[in-house]
């Protein structure tokens, strides 16, 4: 609606921004992104697209804190495993305490990996039996050599250099993989050896017996081995700049197919599977694979992916929950200080929603019983996907912020100005919100709007509040961008402004 005033002046209430919920986009110049996208954000989620809101809360697990954590894993759907200061421990999810499986192990210098092995009716000497279930913990020692450890229930042993066959008592020389890059596939353990390009595999149904002849050379691998995983009934192996897929089940039909000689993986935990897709991080960005040719996604998080401190790329880890993949990475830091969340639910129709959850410091993820857990650098375990929304009954409300693109609409010109703005939002009684603006699209400095008396931060209903300009800076402008910041749970629907126009009225 346009209202005519004196001296050829008019005023119109204009909807500048409606629906922020397309998430982050740092792939293109901020002036070119969609009006529903954000150029920068912290602790903001796109879960309620088309609106934007504060991310879900993370709940601290009620368990003892680890002292020198080096990774977590799972056994079944109710037991969590951890490697902590030379001790391999486990706990039931309903328990608060950790129970040592074995202590006195060499303290790992890098993250350990955990794996489950089921014989499904084969005993350790390949005869028919009830079947056994093993847990494997592969870790690195200070000299950067690697040893594997395994346990069958309460029995603990090493991956030793000799193997005694239970049925005959005969002892053979053993050749286990000397690496913590392991995966389980078709009743065998596959693992990279210390030369970083040879894969050793165990005897069928036996997680601890590795014959001398049981190895595969990944001859066309570019760079050292980086990661290995089982996906879609095949073993996938990455070099630093290549990707390979293993077909077959025995020495008689094993065949490596080179998926790519340019796309690799940046680290041993920089991959995850979500909704039947395999995702991983290469130097060029996030890739997805379902067979055929890998496809690049995650372009909208370009700023953060390009800002990775590659010196500490081995810290990068990934996890998944529901339709989301979580990437913990060192963004201009020596620790995993940034958590990127990509919702892959809309990939097929071109909708890629990217959120940023800051200050995570997650060093490893594990999925147990349809939940995603993250172990942080301080040894605390977090439930990453609680159903609680930030700000409800929390003693410390999470800080959040986001910036819009610079607006350059026809309603903004040298003969116009912004008198005040209206924000439609919803929050909790503990929430707070501040609105700032900048007339320089490349500036990191923002001026703060004044909040009128009708600003209702304590309302839990959807409200429309008015913010007033504190100066004449928003007169005669051609573009402006906004910054929202606050604490606690907040959902923001849109932003309107009173536009003052000077001159002839059309």
The DSSP helix count reads 1
Do you know the CATH topology of the largest domain?
Answer: Neuraminidase
* Largest sheet: number of strands, sense, barrel closure: 8 strands, antiparallel
What is the CATH architecture assignment of the largest domain?
6 Propeller
Strands, count = 43
The first-level CATH class of the largest domain is given as Mainly Beta
Question: What class, by secondary structure content?
Answer: mainly beta
Number of domains: 2
Distance between the termini: 13 Å
Silhouette: elongated
Residues in helices, as a percent range: under 10%
Care to describe what's here?
The protein is mostly beta strands. The protein has two domains: 2-40 and 399-502, Jelly Rolls, CATH 2.60.120; 71-301, Neuraminidase (6 Propeller), CATH 2.120.10. It is 1% helix and 46% strand. The chain contains one helix and 43 strands. The strands form ten sheets. Strands 1, 2, 4, 5, 37, 40, 41 and 43 form an eight-stranded antiparallel sheet that branches. The chain has a five-stranded antiparallel sheet with strand order 3-36-42-38-39, with no helix packed on it. Strands 6-35-34-33 form a four-stranded antiparallel sheet, with no helix packed on it. A hairpin with a 2-residue loop joins strand 26 and strand 27 (285-289). The mean pLDDT is 85.
């Amino acid at each position: 609606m346009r209202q005519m005033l004196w001296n050829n002046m008019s005023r119109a209430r204009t909807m500048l921004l409606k629906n922020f919920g397309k998430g982050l986009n740092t792939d293109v110049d901020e002036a070119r992104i969609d009006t529903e996208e954000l150029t920068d954000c912290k602790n903001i989620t796109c879960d309620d697209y088309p609106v934007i809101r504060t991310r879900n809360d993370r709940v601290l697990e009620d368990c003892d804190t680890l002292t020198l954590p080096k990774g977590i894993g799972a056994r079944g759907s109710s037991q969590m495993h951890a490697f902590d200061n030379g001790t391999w421990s486990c706990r039931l999810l309903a328990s608060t305490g950790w129970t040592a499986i074995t202590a006195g192990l060499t303290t790992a210098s890098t993250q350990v990996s955990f794996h489950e092995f089921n014989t499904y009716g084969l005993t350790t000497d390949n005869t028919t039996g009830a079947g056994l279930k093993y847990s494997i913990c592969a870790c690195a020692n200070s000299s950067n050599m690697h040893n594997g450890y395994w346990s069958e229930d309460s029995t603990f042993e090493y991956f030793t250099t000799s193997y005694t066959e239970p049925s005959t008592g005969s002892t053979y020389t053993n050749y286990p993989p000397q690496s913590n890059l392991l995966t389980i596939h078709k009743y065998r353990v596959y693992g990279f050896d210390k030369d970083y390009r040879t894969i050793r595999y165990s005897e069928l149904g036996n997680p601890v017996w590795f014959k001398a002849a049981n190895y595969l050379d990944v001859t066309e691998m570019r760079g050292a081995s980086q990661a290995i995983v089982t996906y879609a009934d095949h073993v996938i192996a990455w070099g630093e700049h290549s990707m390979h897929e293993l077909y077959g089940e025995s020495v008689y039909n094993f065949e490596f197919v080179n998926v790519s000689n340019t796309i690799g993986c940046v680290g041993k935990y920089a991959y995850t599977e979500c909704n039947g897709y395999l995702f991983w991080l290469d130097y060029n960005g996030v890739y997805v694979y379902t067979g055929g040719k890998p496809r690049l996604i995650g372009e909208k998080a370009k700023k953060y992916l390009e800002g990775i401190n590659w010196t500490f790329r081995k810290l990068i880890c990934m996890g998944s929950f529901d339709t989301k993949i979580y990437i913990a990475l060192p963004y201009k830091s020596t620790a995993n200080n940034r958590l990127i969340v990509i919702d892959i639910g809309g990939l097929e129709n071109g909708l890629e929603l990217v959120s940023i959850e800051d200050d995570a410091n997650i060093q490893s993820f594990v999925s147990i019983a349809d939940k995603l857990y993250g172990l942080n650098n301080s040894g605390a375990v977090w439930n990453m996907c609680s159903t609680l929304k930030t700000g409800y009954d929390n003693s410390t409300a999470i800080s959040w912020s986001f910036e819009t693109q610079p607006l350059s609409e026809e309603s903004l010109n040298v003969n116009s100005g912004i008198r005040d703005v209206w924000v439609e939002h919803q929050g909790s009684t503990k929430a707070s919100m501040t609105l700032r603006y900048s007339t320089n699209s490349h500036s990191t400095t923002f001026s703060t709007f004044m909040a009128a008396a009708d600003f209702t931060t304590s309302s839990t209903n959807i409200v429309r509040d008015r913010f007033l300009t504190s100066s004449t800076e928003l007169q005669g402008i051609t573009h402006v961008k906004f910054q929202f910041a606050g604490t606690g749970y907040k959902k923001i629907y849109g932003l309107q402004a009173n536009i003052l126009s000077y001159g002839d009225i059309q």
